[in-house]
Design goal:
The complex is a heterotetramer of chains A (386), B (374), C (327) and D (405).
Chain A (H helix, E strand, L loop, with lengths): L1 H16 L9 H11 L1 H18 L1 H4 L19 E2 L6 E10 L4 E25 L3 E10 L30 H37 L1 H14 L4 H10 L7 H32 L2 H8 L4 H38 L10 H5 L5 H6 L5 H24 L4
Antiparallel strand pairs in A: 1-2, 2-3, 3-4
Helix pairs in contact in A: 2-13, 3-5, 3-13, 5-6, 5-8, 5-10, 6-8, 7-8, 8-10, 9-10, 10-13
Chain C lengths: L1 H27 L5 H11 L6 H11 L5 H13 L5 E2 L4 E2 H36 L4 H15 L2 H16 L9 H4 L5 H38 L2 H8 L4 H19 L1 H19 L4 H11 L2 H29 L1 H5 L1
Antiparallel strand pairs in C: 1-2
Helix pairs in contact in C: 1-14, 5-6, 5-9, 5-12, 6-9, 7-9, 7-12, 9-11, 9-12, 10-11, 11-14, 12-13, 12-14, 13-14
Chain D lengths: L12 E16 L4 E17 L3 E5 L6 H8 L7 E8 L3 E4 L5 H7 L3 E4 L13 H11 L5 H14 L16 H13 L5 E5 L7 H18 L2 E6 L2 H7 L2 E6 L2 E7 H6 L4 H9 L39 H5 L5 E4 L2 E3 L26 H9 L40
Parallel strand pairs in D: 3-8, 3-9, 6-7, 7-8
Antiparallel strand pairs in D: 1-2, 1-4, 4-5, 9-10, 10-12, 11-12
Helix pairs in contact in D: 3-4, 3-5, 4-5, 5-6
The chains are: A alpha+beta (386), B alpha/beta (374), C mainly alpha (327), D alpha/beta (405).
């Protein structure tokens, strides 16, 4: 009855739209329609898309290289931008040693302003990893910069939108670069887990019997080990000396090794439900093979649920990478991820003195919340009554 | 609103000769405010339940018969709301009439009526009992609420009432959990619970639909016995015409949130007036009917609740459809000529077409109604 | 019921056996043994180790033994209460971890209790006041609660506590009690320090459980027997708390198996940030240093806890829901 | 393929079932061993003649659906023989066939399911659903396939353009028509109707029943009609078999069985049906207790625990299904001595219980063509009979439908 009510709602909605005959709309179209009605989920999706675009164009958006050290700007706070004169500009600043605290402090010198320029040339990078270029969205005009007494060279006027870290690295550049890892590692990890879980779950649910038994016991076994320690142990088993790319791949694998069990279990449940439905029986009665039933009935019906379960699993995987990196077991410098960045913000003192180091955490929260909105919306769209 | 004399559809009378209706429902309107639109579940329903009688409410799915029952209990689930009308309730023939809808849904007065004055049984015996409590405890709970504060006494009464509804080994059943009982036994337990405080009215919402025929027969004869013994009025909601014929004194036929015909059970079966009632009776295969005889068909299906039908709600399926009238004008409820307790809502009959040339004016007993044609 | 428990116990033993094998391999996996690291450390101190000394050490710790032998040696030791030797701390693992595990357990247990005590009423309120402003607020907090990483919450709370409450945060004891024997004062001091880590560890689980509770209760409130209870004339409060909540707890208890590992994971991270004397930081340290026996012991202990927790969940379920007892 | 000829199964028998059993194992105990069997179907025998409808009735859990599905091997039968008279291959033993052989026979035996919702894949268009059997068996493709689907849709009273819609756009009755079209696609000889109308509203039920009858006539179909509603079964069946706890207790021609039952259970079933006749209220023979569990069936006659006529022998000895009267089988020790009450024949019912036929005709002529095509009035639900065109009955007032009294 519940599904009838749902369909009636759809029909009603369509009657209002009067755009298309709902009778000819496939389940996917109906789901998309239902999803679009959930404002929060759509918002989540848009924000996430935005974040991925930012990550993809990290080189273009960052004015400086993410691993560029700058001893003149250790722990520089986010640069203030003034709009005096109608154009955005920044002040110069100089490093002064506070002799009482034995710490560097920064003195702003706003006697001269350095305008921010857009579409400037800077360091060389590959756009989307493919096209070498040196164009950047913005930079600071260096015209008239004071000469550094120590080196005799003109001092570089820098714009740190999100401040700088303990080595003077630009946080914005690091965050953008880190987003590439943090936003994808969970996604790909869950992707691998999804493929693994769907195949095994479908086999287990459809054929039952011995296969199912072995599968069930294996899943139970893996889920009897607490996740974070298991992740940590797996990650710790990775040798510390390896290339960034290899480590990235292996961390993905580690994430998926733990995450597939939940997926497989859910898919199994769904497939078991579908198997007993009469449309599968009708195909069997017509002489259809198992392959046919799985390919034309089980999988297409399970796919939407697989997508939902996967979407709901992504936040967990992203959080896991962040936590592992934070603990020093996941990604390691020179690679940058949000977790790696947050490693610098482990103590209260740092957080209180240099709050901008916590910006990656804000992004983690935004990302995870958006993924939850997305997953929730997908689930409601697929199965409005469960 | 309604002239009390108009509702003479009962044999029960008060000592002074008036009609003794336990419940009188007037112009009841219930709507459901869902995300995609308003569902008009009930559009001005009028009926009365005479004291000590069994009223059958018949209709297909979506006709609003269950919602009618829930409205009397003030238990219409969200997002439904009772939007208008009155439900007049008279505890005893000489007691004051109260409008149930005036009481707060959660008020003490309303809760005192629920379970004590009015009991209810639902369609699904498998899900009507709470799976985590013992059957006896669930009945005891109702008795403790309304009858006695003494736990032991309430328990004993619960066992008694289980015995009374024909439970073999009532003591053991009282100590069982619902999942240990069969569907028929659970429905008996539900009846026991509903009757535990000797209510004036029992609302039975399709109590046998989910049961097998032999179990259904058991439950029906049990209800009949208890009814004659306790004198409870019953509002029997069902879609099974056979059950109606066997159980009820009066019948109200519902279609899309309206009562289209009201009469005694005899008139409904032997002198039906509304085309829907007639078609319904003819479309069911009857035992003993010759094989090969085609069944009458009502074309189409019950429209989905979101759509609005202009004029008479039955007109798209009606075999006696009159273009220009049925699809534009909503018929009002009127008495069948020469009958005092048989009303119908169909343009075929005089008095049903409001203020129109075709309507035969001056027919006595036209019930004034405030429901407006949509 | 006896059958049920017996079957679960047998399953438990088998599960633990398998886990021990997995854990063992996991820890054996990385190239180089803990002894290598230890030798490196000794060498770096300048002392010259002779090859024969190295051999002797390797012999003593069975570095070159085939894996089966190592495994059985280790498992055999477990039964005798010998959990191996920590190179890093130059101590037996057993006593090293014992005290800290107690605090871990205390923290995880209190967090679990806290999560339940908070999430059930919140979930019930949220479900019974659906689509009201408090419900929206609770729901929003839930979403964020799940999304906030433990370490971040720990940091924020610490900053908050340090700045506005002037509380002494970090650790589980004030300095004067740290080494003191147990007394009421020490217990009170522990309580004063415990609230912060408990909130940190349980935040995610609380948010999640509230969500589960709300969803389940919404389902249950649609059930026919809830309507039956109302039709009896029960007060709405009694309907919700007596008839609905008890049935809605069912999935909540089933998730116990999922909440426990999350709590243990949270405990590890929170303890590092808050500098708590629990087993979590020790474990991470051990992993970083490939201190095999220490890491594997922690992994085993948490798994045992988890398996026991699952058994308890099953029993609790049977107690709450008579239908499960049929099994 | 077995081609064992059978003396019992002459040519006009399309399907014969001998000693069919389907047991489902129950696991339990410490090691989850099989501790028992749910004997859903426990040795039933029957046959269906070409072109007839055999009704299979019983209460829920009696194994009637399982039996129907075991015949198609949607459940693998535990034991017994299912002999199908294939038009090309002659008599085949369904239970012995390999997957390939079964596939060759299956087009001749199809099934219509109970639930109009779960029996259609929500992700396929109606066209694909109906075409699937044709595609699997490579009967048609391309243009021919489309034409065949259109034809099938028309046959069941839907429109060809419905092929591009999805099931969710159809009402329960229409979905059931789609299921019937799918079953018809391969030109089967036998259709097993597994409670095809029990999920439908009463007013739609009649439409589907009439359609099934029309199709039987048109395509020379044979039905095994599984249902729990005795009135429906009486209406559609030539012969009826009654099941109780996995056994067949009685089988006879419909009239014979309904008017002259030979098994006390049949009598009780017939007596329990509430008759739609308020002037004829009756007290049914109240059967004590509940249907026994097929996991733990009683000894002797399965019905003895509830039978009002039970005697000592019934407790110990299980009566076989035997031919007590010509063409009338019953499994009761005392069929010969008991005088059981059936359903009164129609002419025994007072005349005025039946509505007047003239009034019906007049009412029919009363509905005009200008009827609105409201969205809810799904096309194709209008019954299989074309609507009578006639004068619009504007003048129709109360007079036309007053039945004789």
């Amino acid at each position: 009855m519940a599904s009838t009510a749902g369909v009636a709602q759809d029909l009603r909605q369509a009657a209002k739209d009067k755009k298309k005959d709902v009778g000819q709309m496939s389940q996917w179209q109906l789901m998309a329609r239902r999803f679009m009605q959930n404002k929060l989920s759509v918002l989540g999706l848009l924000i996430l898309l935005g974040l991925y675009v930012l990550a993809a164009f990290s080189g273009f958006l960052a004015p400086y290289q993410f691993n560029e050290l700058d001893s003149n700007n250790v722990f520089t706070s986010p640069t203030g931008i003034s709009f005096a004169g109608g154009r955005p500009s920044v002040c110069g600043q100089s490093q002064v040693l506070n002799e009482e605290l034995l710490e560097y402090e920064y003195v702003e010198d706003c006697s001269k302003r350095y305008p921010i320029q857009f579409f400037v040339r800077g360091f060389e990078y590959k756009l989307l990893g493919l096209f070498p270029t040196n164009w950047h969205l913005f930079g600071v005009s260096q015209a008239g910069a004071p000469v550094d007494e120590a080196t005799g060279k003109p001092q570089e006027i820098k714009l740190f939108l999100f401040g700088a870290d303990n080595q003077g690295r630009d946080m914005l550049a690091q965050i953008l670069q880190g987003a590439r890892v943090s936003l994808t590692v969970g996604l790909i990890g869950v992707g691998i887990a999804t493929i693994l879980g769907s195949v095994l779950g479908t086999a287990s649910g459809y054929f039952g019997g011995f296969i199912d038994n072995v599968m069930q016991r294996t899943i139970e076994l893996i889920s009897s080990i607490p996740q974070i320690p298991l992740w940590a142990a797996l990650a710790a088993a990775l040798p510390r000396e390896m290339s960034v790319v290899r480590r990235y791949i292996l961390i993905t694998v580690v994430l998926s090794l733990v995450a597939w069990t939940g997926l497989a279990r859910q898919v199994r449940g769904k497939v078991m439900g579908y198997r007993s439905l009469d449309y599968a029986n009708a195909t069997r009665a017509a002489g259809g093979s198992h392959t046919r039933i799985i390919l034309t009935h089980m999988l297409p019906n399970a796919v939407s649920h697989i997508v939902v379960v996967a979407a709901l699993a992504i936040p967990g995987a992203i959080l896991a990478e962040t936590a592992l990196s934070f603990l020093g077991l996941g990604m390691l410098r020179p690679a940058v991820s949000w977790g790696v960045l947050l490693r610098d913000a482990q103590s209260v003192q740092v957080v209180m003195d240099y709050p901008w180091l916590m910006i990656p955490a804000v992004l983690v929260i935004i990302t995870l919340t958006c993924y939850q909105f997305l997953g929730d919306g997908l689930r409601d769209a697929v199965d409005p009554y469960s | 609103m309604a002239d009390p004399v108009a509702n003479t559809g009962s044999t029960a009378t008060t000592p002074d000769g008036g009609v003794d209706n336990l419940i009188q429902v007037e112009n009841l309107e219930v709507r459901f405010y869902t995300q995609v639109g308003v569902v008009r579940a009930l559009n001005g329903v009028d009926f009365n339940i005479p004291r000590g009688q069994v009223l059958g409410v018949v209709g297909e799915s979506g006709s609003g018969k269950s919602i009618t029952g829930l409205s009397i209990m003030q238990l219409v689930p969200r997002p439904g709301r009772v939007e208008g009308g009155r439900i007049l309730y008279k505890d005893k023939p000489d007691s004051k009439t109260i409008n149930i809808l005036d009481l707060g849904r959660q008020s003490d007065e309303m809760r005192a009526i629920r379970g004590d004055d009015i009991g209810m049984i639902f369609q699904e015996p498998m899900t009507s009992l709470n799976p985590v409590f013992k059957v006896g405890a669930q009945i005891q709970e109702a008795i403790l609420l309304h009858q006695t504060p003494n736990k032991q006494e309430a328990w004993d009464r619960a066992v008694d009432i289980l015995d009374k509804v024909g439970m073999p080994n009532a003591r053991r059943v009282a100590n069982s959990y619902p999942h240990e009982l069969s569907g028929g036994m659970r429905q008996r337990a539900m009846i026991a619970m509903a009757l535990s405080c000797s209510p004036n009215l029992l609302i039975a919402d399709e109590p046998t639909t989910a049961l097998d025929v032999t179990t259904e027969a058991q439950i029906l004869s049990l209800m009949r016995d208890l009814q004659s013994e306790i004198g409870t009025s019953i509002m029997f909601i069902t879609h099974n015409m056979g059950v109606v014929a066997q159980m009820c004194d009066e019948v109200a036929v519902m279609y899309l949130g309206r009562i289209v015909e009201r009469a005694t059970v005899d008139d409904i079966f032997y002198d039906p007036k509304h085309p829907y009632t007639i078609s319904l009776l003819r479309s069911i295969p009857r035992l003993g009917q010759k094989r090969g005889q085609r069944l009458e068909v009502i074309k189409g299906g019950v429209p989905d609740p979101y759509s609005t039908v202009t004029g008479c709600p039955f007109h798209p399926r009606c075999p006696s459809f009159m273009p220009g009238l049925c699809d534009t004008v909503l018929p009002i409820e009127a008495f069948i000529e020469g009958k005092t307790n048989h009303t119908v809502r169909c343009h075929l009959y005089p008095g049903c077409t409001p203020d129109s040339d075709q309507a035969v004016t001056g027919v006595s007993g036209t019930i004034p109604t405030t429901s407006k044609a949509q | 019921m006896v059958n049920f428990i017996a079957r679960r116990l047998i399953a438990m033993v088998i599960t633990l056996l398998f886990i021990s094998i997995i854990a063992f391999f996991l820890i054996e996996l990385p190239p180089g043994s803990a002894l290598d690291a230890e030798l490196l450390r000794l060498r770096s101190r300048g002392g010259n180790l002779s090859l024969s000394q190295v051999r002797e050490l390797e012999e003593r710790f069975g570095v070159h033994d085939p894996w089966q032998e190592k495994y059985f040696k280790w498992v055999g030791g477990l039964f005798r209460g010998d959990f191996g030797y920590s190179f890093r701390y130059s101590r037996e693992v057993g006593p090293l971890i014992a005290g800290r595990l107690g605090f871990s357990l205390l923290l995880a247990g209190t967090s679990l209790l806290f999560a339940w005590l908070v999430s059930i009423p919140l979930g019930v309120y949220s479900a019974t006041h659906r689509n009201t402003i408090p419900d929206y607020i609770i729901t929003t907090i839930q979403f964020v609660g799940v999304a906030v990483p433990e370490f971040l919450l720990a940091l924020v709370l610490m900053v908050f506590a340090a700045r506005f409450l002037g509380a002494d945060v970090g650790g589980l004891f004030s300095r004067q009690y740290e080494a003191a024997p147990w007394s009421w004062g020490k217990v009170w001091d522990l309580m004063k320090h415990l609230w912060l880590p408990v909130i940190v560890v349980s935040a995610g689980s609380t948010a999640w459980l509230t969500r589960v509770m709300r969803a389940n209760l919404l389902d249950v409130l649609n059930a026919q027997y809830v309507q039956t209870a109302r039709a009896k004339g029960l007060k709405e409060n009694a309907v919700v708390w007596k008839h609905a909540v008890r049935n809605a707890l069912h999935p909540l208890i089933m998730t116990l198996g999922g909440v426990l590992p999350a709590l243990i994971g949270g405990e590890v991270i929170a303890s590092i940030v808050l500098n708590l004397p629990t087993a979590g930081p020790l474990f991470i340290e051990a992993l970083r240093n490939q201190d095999m026996y220490l890491a594997i012991t922690f992994l085993m202990f948490t798994s045992v806890l988890l398996v026991i927790g699952n058994l308890l969940a099953d029993l609790l379920l049977a107690w709450v829901d008579p239908r499960v007892r049929l099994e | 393929m077995t081609t064992e000829s059978s003396a019992v199964a002459p040519d006009d028998v399309l399907l014969e079932v001998r000693n069919l059993k389907k047991h489902f194992p129950i696991t339990g105990g410490l090691l989850r061993r099989v501790v028992g069997q749910v004997k859903a179907v426990d040795g039933i025998n029957f046959f269906i003649k070409k072109g007839e409808t055999l009704g299979l009735v019983g209460e829920s859990g009696c194994g009637k659906s399982t039996a129907g599905r075991a015949i198609l091997r949607l459940h693998e039968p535990t034991d017994g023989e299912i002999i199908f008279n294939d038009p090309k291959r002659g008599q085949v033993h369904i239970e012995d066939l390999s997957f390939g052989e079964l596939k060759a026979v299956r087009p001749n035996m199809q099934i219509v399911f109970q639930d109009p919702f779960s029996s259609l894949d929500p992700r396929m268009t109606v066209g694909r659903i109906i075409a699937e059997p044709l595609v699997i068996n490579k009967v048609a493709s391309g243009r021919a396939l489309r034409d065949r689907v259109a034809e099938l849709l028309t046959v069941v009273g839907l429109r060809p353009e419905h092929a591009s819609r999805y099931p969710h756009a159809f009402s329960g009755g229409q979905r059931q028509r789609i299921g019937i079209a799918r079953a018809l696609a391969l030109n089967p000889k036998l259709i097993i109707c597994d409670e095809p109308v029990s999920a439908l509203d009463v007013s739609v039920q009649a439409q589907v029943l009439n359609l099934l009858e029309d199709l039987q006539e048109q395509f020379d179909l044979t039905y095994l009609f599984v249902a729990h509603d005795l009135s429906v079964v009486e209406h559609i069946s030539d012969r009826v078999a009654v099941m109780y706890v996995g056994y067949l207790v009685e089988m006879a021609d419909t009239e014979e069985l309904y008017h002259n039952p030979q098994h006390p259970y049949t009598e009780a079933l017939l007596g329990a049906i509430p008759k739609p006749d308020p002037r004829n209220r009756h007290r049914p023979t109240r059967l004590p207790g509940d249907v026994p569990s097929p996991a733990n069936p009683p000894t002797g006659c399965l019905f003895h625990t509830r039978c009002p006529y039970a005697q000592d022998v019934c407790v110990t000895e299980r009566p076989p299904l035997r031919e007590v009267l010509p063409g009338h089988w019953a499994a009761c020790h005392f069929s010969e001595t008991l005088r059981l009450k059936g359903v009164p024949r129609l002419n025994e019912i007072p005349v005025d219980t039946m509505p007047d036929a003239n009034a019906v005709a007049q009412m029919q002529s009363g509905h005009g063509q200008s009827q609105s095509n409201a969205t809810h009035n799904g096309p194709g639900d209008g019954g299989s009979r074309p609507p009578t065109t006639g004068s619009t009955g504007t003048g129709g007032t109360g007079i036309t439908i007053r039945p004789k009294s």
